[in-house]
């Protein structure tokens, strides 16, 4: 009997090869380009061919051609707000599968191939790239500029800024990066720099300008771009800078709230007020503040800091950390304006995405 079983086993036909592996490369690229990126880590484990494919520029070019690009969040994290920056990305398990060791299907995943970067630098996302400018490196102000390629998770150096600064107002308008003020001393609590630097991402050239005396010597806490203008806040005032007219005016209504770590959706500024445990919204057209309604009690309370970043589809992602805990929470919130002008929000999901005593310095959205 045993010999018959052995002969039967020997007669079994070999397992047929995977059909997709028999297709021409261009056909495989077209197929994989239509697959959501959350499946790419699994595909990369199939074979060397797929591992190379999911990191190839050709694949992402086809994704762009088919309109299959997705917005991905990259998060700059420091362990204690004084150590170097390490980069994480917000990942989702396909089909709601759970990550081991957590009840959530979302988590922040460290990107080990990216080198540590200066603390208190500035970050701007353009397409699939992130520009990292200035900051403190070994407790020295640096003018260095790095470009992170989020397709390959590699970094390269670019020409230095004309002036070394940290903690600047840094925003993107018409493919030009504006770096305003910032600390040019070893004191991160002050902002004595009177400079304004503009980087043209098309010509890859820097321009150094002298800015007017907007709160010289004060630290900038937050900035956003609305309608081609830069909205920025210090402890004492909030300003609106128009780069076309090269004018800067004070906005007292905007400054009536301690807004920081903000984002913009449909020309409305949003920030999470950790003291009031609410999401606030500022409409610059109406010049008025409001509170987003509809999700009271659905987010963690008693938090010590928050960060927001806007996403496609009228949504924002909110990061929070409770005062007595070390875990970082994350929530995705869809916002909409209803009849009467009220803004309502819906929590799509909310969960712990990272354990440990870490601090999120900034969040950047890129297209992949």
TrEMBL record:
> Which Pfam families does the record match to this protein?
F-box, Kelch_FKB95
From the UniProt record, list the coiled-coil ranges: none
State the Gene3D superfamilies in the record.
Kelch-type beta propeller
Which domain of life does this protein belong to? Eukaryota
Q: Which SMART domains does UniProt cross-reference here?
A: FBOX (SM00256)
User: Where is each F-box domain found?
Assistant: 17-63
**SUPFAM superfamilies from the xrefs?**
F-box domain, Kelch motif
Q: Which InterPro entries match?
A: F-box-like_dom_sf (IPR036047), F-box/kelch-repeat_ARATH (IPR050354), F-box_dom (IPR001810), Kelch-typ_b-propeller (IPR015915), Kelch_FKB95 (IPR057499)
Q: What is this protein called?
A: Kelch repeat-containing F-box family protein
Species the sequence originates in: Arabidopsis lyrata subsp. lyrata (Lyre-leaved rock-cress)
């Amino acid at each position: 009997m045993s010999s018959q079983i052995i002969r039967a086993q020997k007669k079994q036909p070999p397992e047929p090869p995977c059909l997709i592996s028999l297709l021409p490369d261009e056909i495989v690229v077209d197929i994989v380009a239509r697959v959501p990126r959350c499946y790419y880590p699994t595909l990369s484990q199939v074979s060397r061919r797929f591992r190379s494919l999911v990191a190839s520029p050709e694949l992402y070019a086809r994704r762009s051609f088919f309109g299959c690009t997705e917005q991905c969040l990259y998060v700059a994290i420091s362990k204690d707000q004084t150590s170097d920056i390490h980069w994480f990305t917000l990942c989702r398990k396909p089909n709601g599968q759970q990550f081991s060791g957590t009840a959530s299907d979302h988590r922040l995943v460290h990107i080990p191939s990216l080198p540590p970067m200066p603390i208190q630098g500035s970050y701007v996302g353009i397409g699939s790239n992130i520009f990292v400018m200035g900051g403190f490196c070994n407790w020295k102000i640096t003018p260095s500029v790095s470009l992170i390629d989020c397709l390959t998770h590699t970094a390269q150096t670019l020409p230095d800024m004309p002036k070394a600064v940290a903690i600047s107002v840094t925003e993107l308008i018409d493919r030009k990066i504006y770096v305003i003020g910032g600390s040019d001393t070893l004191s991160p609590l002050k902002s004595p720099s009177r400079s304004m630097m503009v980087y043209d991402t098309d010509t890859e050239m820097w321009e150094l300008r002298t800015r007017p005396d907007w709160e010289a010597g004060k630290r900038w806490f937050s900035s956003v771009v609305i309608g081609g203008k830069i909205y920025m806040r210090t402890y004492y005032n909030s300003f609106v800078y128009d780069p076309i007219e090269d004018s800067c005016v004070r906005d007292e209504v905007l400054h009536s709230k301690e807004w920081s770590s903000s984002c913009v959706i449909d020309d409305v500024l949003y920030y999470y007020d950790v003291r009031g445990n609410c999401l606030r919204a500022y409409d610059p057209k109406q010049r008025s503040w409001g509170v987003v309604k509809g999700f009271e009690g659905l987010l963690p309370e008693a938090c010590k800091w928050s960060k927001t970043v806007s996403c496609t589809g009228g949504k924002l992602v909110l990061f929070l950390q409770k005062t007595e805990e070390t875990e970082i929470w994350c929530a995705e919130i869809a916002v909409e304006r209803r009849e009467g002008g009220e803004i309502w929000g819906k929590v799509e999901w909310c969960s712990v995405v990272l354990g440990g005593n870490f601090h999120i310095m900034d969040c950047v959205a890129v297209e992949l």
